[in-house]
Amino acid sequence: MMKKWLLACLAAACIGSNVQAQQADETLKLWYDKPADQWVEALPLGNGRIGAMVFGDPAHEQFQLNEETVWGGSPYNNTNPKAKDALPRIRQLIFEGKNAEAQALCGPTICSQSANGMPYQTVGTLHLDFDGISNYNDYYRDLDIEKAVTTTRFTANGVTYTREAYTSFPDQILVIRLTASQKKSISFTAKYTTPYKENVVRCISPRKELQLNGKANNHEGIEGKVEFTALTRIENSGGNLEVLSDSTLQVKNANSVTLYVSIGTNFVNYKDVSGNAQATAQKYLANVNKNYTKSKAAHINTYQKFFNRVSLDLGRNAQANKPTDVRVKEFSSSFDPQMAALYFQFGRYLLICSSQPGGQAANLQGIWNYQLRAPWDGKYTTDINVEMNYWPAESTSLPEMHEPFLQLVKEVAIQGRESAAMYGCRGWTLHHNTDIWRSTGAVDGPGYGIWATCNAWFCQHLWDRYLFSGDKNYLAEVYPLMRGACEFYLDFLVREPENNWLVVAPSYSPENRPVVNGKRDFVVVAGTTMDNQMVYDLFYNTIAAAGLMNENTAFTDSLQTVVNNLAP
Length: 568
What we know:
This protein is of the alpha+beta class and 568 residues long. The protein has 14 helices and 20 strands.
């Protein structure tokens, strides 16, 4: 999903190109000559923890806001205790060719009978409604992915307005800067909107701050316990700042304005929501660097320490002078090598902005989502999508961005002991989905949920990280996770009767519903090719890791014996 969203955002279908060429002469900018009409056309900012989508509307600007820990529900797990007793019968039915019957039995005995996973949710939107801007020209907006800064520029009534925004990495806030070519030209009202029914928006005096308090939703019987607070502080040069109503601030006739947006939640970790959302938001706001020039420079410097490690030059031609949406539209029929480089770097940009050390892993939406129910709930779909998010981490010199995902693996391995135990096995495992609470049960019914091989795929990331770094201290830290995944398969693998191979059963081929002789009414099988490959790699990688960790030979011999009996 993140990859699909990336392409949609890059396309940002705003038609037209009447902007001067010099405005788009830098190679790593997404730029457009109209405001965003749809959410996917807005431009994404993020510092790992908070995200913002910038629409660039001259009269009615929007900053749609996210914070990475705003998820529905609260700590839980969703394993099914009936799995262990049902497992022999399910396998018998599969080996007898009664796969449809086996699949039907998997539903009530393996799949979760409670929650299917919690949704990643939005915070809300900060609206800035400007006075005196009805007609405008010379419009331009961009996202500079070399600096992680958006710019909107246009002329109205003879005044040129410029708006910059960035989500500061060091300050952990959204900073918005409004300037104009003539003094006393900036007038607007500021307010929050949010889709939550339970929320409070108010103006705080005497600081004249705008505050939004809310709580994430209950979902599938799990109580929503994540509380959030968003604060907006407005610093105006010239003009006046007033409280217009209980929920609206007004700026009149300012020369320039800087807005600081801070978001905090009560989330501590996947087991603990005892934090203080308002105190967290206030802490970030209190520590902000109010010197805009220095704050912006510090933000760019922090970001570029990651981004500047890799460059890609595929050449450039006249296509690069066109708005980004036009280039996307023409890409299939025009030679535009720089677009491929831009797309590559945009992927790195999104990973840097949605996955920072100490924070949460990038989910299906990265961190950008305007809905209470994101597509596929915005969860961590672990049968391909979350792994795909992190394929560029090590190979494009972003190992720090890998850390939130590796932490997710560590935490899922703890929760995953319950999923292994539900099959009567040692070690740990999970199925095709998890969320911020690290749920590990089989969800979404037997057509999707019967896939217990995710632990093997997760362990590929653990091993790849070692291969890139050569760090034996790191390997010592994650080796128990690899060993635990192997212990699960030592207990879970079963011999299929035709060839006497050890296979994973029950299982299915994720995201793939093959047909046989033109039809098939089931997906649950034994020994899918994907499982065979994943378990093979897990065991061989763990054998190699065990040698470096001076593991006893009895354990590695047991792994080698299993490898010798896997399906070829």
